[in-house]
Amino acid sequence: MAASTLIAQPTSPVSVIVAREALADTLKLLAECGCLHPEPLEAEGALSQTLRHLRSELESLAQRLLELLRAAEEAGAGAAEGEQVLKISREADIGLSRLLGEIDRAVRDVESLVERLSQLRNPESELAEMLAALEAYSFINIDIEALKRNSYIRAKVYRVPRGSVAGFIADLEAIGAIAGLHATGIEEGMETVVVAYPTWLEAEVGKAALRSRAVPLEVPEGLPRIPAEAISRVRRELEELPLALRRHAPRIREALVKVEAAKRLLSLLEATRITRLLAVINGYIAPGREGDLEEALASLGGGYTALVYEETGGSRGHGGEAGEKLPPSYFRVSEKLAPFASLLEMAGYPRPREFVPAVLMAFTLPLVYGLMFPDMGHGLVLLLAGYYLFYRKMGDRNNGRLLMLFGAVAMATGFLAGEFFGPLPAVAGWLNAIWHGHPPLASPLHPFAEELAAGTAGENLAGEATLLIYNAIYLSVALGALLMALSSWVSVANGVLIGDKEITAVGLGKALVFTGIAVVFLVGGAVGHGATPLERAGSVLYDAGLALVPKTSLGMAARLMVTIGLLLALAAPALFGHGSAGERVMNGIVEAFDILLMAIGNTASFMRIMGLMLAHSGLMFGFAILAVVGGPVLGGIAYIFGNILVIGLEALVAYAHSLRLHFYEMFSKFYLDGGRPYTPVKLPENVRLVVE
Q: Rounded to whole angstroms, what are the CA distances from 239 to 89, 119, 124?
């Protein structure tokens, strides 16, 4: 198992120079190597226009193939097997235009089958509506279309709404047409009228039919003119078309694989500058892959190829100057951390030499989630759901692992909160027995739940609830202060790693400010004055922030850290920033003011942990009341339903707020993102290139 990368690794620019006639062979070797990230050129000219057109056509063709494949899979198609051979040529576009034409011609036949099957199956299509009406008349064994085309006397079968039959027949008699047959019961809500009339009355009969909303019975184009034979043909098509799609499915998959391979080859071609004698392929290579690239190109011969490695432009270039295009970066994570890497990319891709917080998220995200959703029983449900629904049945290993981890942490915090499918002692009382009183993370509603089950009124429930509220507030804010301080120190590390003095100095200012706040809550909550940790931390906060001269050494230390941090953030843009002196000073003022706002707002934002924890207990306490009032049967049903509702609702809400605290409060302190992933071109599996 590969070790996780804590720092995003930078890549180096490289140019592969080959003789023009060896371009196709070189692209083949590069695609097989899977080590070069191509960098598209912004060139103009006929070839560039051709490549852009090819890109558009390949994307469109891939979409068409995916739609056909979905239709074939609905028909029960099997998988394609075996190696796929993709032939490329030494032409300017390496034969991709020819390949595109070949696949497009093959796709058209299958598309006609899919379109026909869709028309027959879609009840809202015009063809399906005509066939549904014709189905009721499948007993007719004569050519009804021939009756309409007679030179002298014509006849039509009309389908007339039941309430309009009398008026329709009266109109026909008035113009001299004959309603020869009037039948009921063939279609629900409709009656059938056979009309015979001379040819010259065609227009008048049509007007009468329009007034009565009468519709002539018609056989769709392409089917036998006799209704019985037309319906028989349609039934055969509905049986044969899925079989035909199944036969074409392997070809569709082969074409889709070839199109994907062609798109990857095209990305290499888009990074190529072609002159009269040479071709230069530009891209990036990851550290340690230079040997793979040189080995892949060795078969071309030393006189046929040259490699030019370039420097990345210094460490500061990875900080991303205005308008600068950063080189791609890459990082590795172990299989167990893959879910957090996927979540991380939602916030952006790390820049070269930037700290990758996937490992950090693996600890903090489940912790915050568990504190928002502390229930041992509900966590067990999430754990089993992650294992059976995702990890075992649906095959989504990343989501399965994430859900299992969330469930395990929710079980741990639920144990500390004394909740097992809610706080009702009839269900979770065994946890209270373990803790011999209120558990460490007990909800403010915990004493009320105990008294509700006992049927008594406690003397000091309000006082107990107040203490538990203080504890919940303190836990939320103290955890927030700790995570804010940790995130700010990561910002300092990022500035050092990318070699940016301004980011380092501003990060140090943030780190000092948030560390001062963390000291107030973590240390002050233990040594300050007061009955509860929140009151003790509040006394130190008052001393550090509001007293003219702090009276305690802890208050003085916290004030110094915050003051120095704000001054450093104020001075950093002026000392290390860019622009005029006025712009640098203004940037410093804005930076310091922003840090001050974040120190207040971001830390307080972690109180949503207490809010969601209290919301969870409040909902479950409400269902506990229903359980006690409703009796064993109705109360039990209400309590079970309440648990199901709360699991589904809070599992998603806690997840959303956990991500919010990470992406907005934590990552905004240090995560620069704006990077580009290192995506070397590599052929799909089971594809072999052949140069003609």
A: 42, 14, 20
How many angstroms separate the CA atoms of 477 and 610, rounded?
9
Can you tell me the distance from the alpha carbon of 662 to that of 487, in angstroms, rounded to the nearest whole number?
Answer: 10
Q: Which two tokens stand for residue 660?
A: 């919010």
Rounded to whole angstroms, the Cα distance separating 497 from 312 reads 15
- Mean pLDDT across 318-331: 69
Residue from 630, 652, 650, 649 nearest 424 by CA: 630
Render pLDDT for 385-402 as a digit per residue (tens, 0 to 9).
Answer: 888 877 766 667 888 889
Residue 127: how many CB atoms within 10 A of its CB? 17
176: left (phi over 0), alpha (psi -120 to 50) or beta: left
CA distance 135 to 122: 15
| Euclidean distance between CA atoms 369 and 382, whole angstroms | 12
Q: What backbone phi and psi angles, to 5 degrees, belong to 274?
A: -110, 125
Distance CA 664, CA 598 (A): 11
Concatenate the DSSP letters of all residues of 379-427 into one string: HHHHHHHIIIIIIIII--HHHHHHHHHHHHHHHHHHHHHT-SSSS-HHH
Spatial distance between the Cα atoms of 318 and 207, rounded to a whole number of angstroms: 78
Q: What is the pLDDT of residues 617-668, one digit of tens each?
A: 888 888 888 887 777 788 888 888 988 998 988 899 999 999 999 998 999 8
pTM, two decimal places:
0.76
What's the mean per-residue pLDDT of the chain? Answer: 82
Domains of the chain: 138-216 (3.30.70.2750), 354-669 (no CATH)
Catalogue the long-range contacts made by 557-560 (C-beta closer than 8 Å, 24 or more residues apart): 557/516, 557/519, 558/516, 558/517, 558/519, 558/520, 558/524, 559/516, 560/516
* Residue type at 516 in one-letter notation: G
- Convert the pLDDT of each residue in 13-70 to its tens digit: 999 888 888 888 888 888 888 889 998 887 666 667 788 888 888 888 888 777 777 7
Stated length of the chain: 692
CB 325 within 8 A of CB 675: no
Cβ contacts of 641 within 8 Å, gap of 6 or more:
623
Can you name the residues that pair with 135 across neighbouring β-strands? none
- C-alpha separations of 276 from 14, 69, 90, 312 in Å: 21, 42, 14, 29
549/559 Cα distance (integer angstroms): 10
Both tokens assigned to 576: 């290390």
The residue among 358, 274, 307, 345 whose CA lies nearest residue 5 is 358
The tens digit of pLDDT for each residue in 433-467 reads 787 777 888 888 777 776 765 555 555 677 777 88
User: Which of 68, 32, 370 minimizes the C-alpha distance to 244?
Assistant: 68
Residue in 233, 235, 237, 231 with CA at minimum distance from that of residue 136: 231
| Helices of type H across 271-322 | 290-297
- The type of residue at 619 is L
Which residues, at least 6 apart from 423, have a Cβ–Cβ distance to it below 8 Å? 443, 445, 446, 449, 617, 620, 621, 624
Higher-confidence residue: 334 or 78?
334
Find, among 339, 343, 368, the residue nearest to 671 by Cα.
343
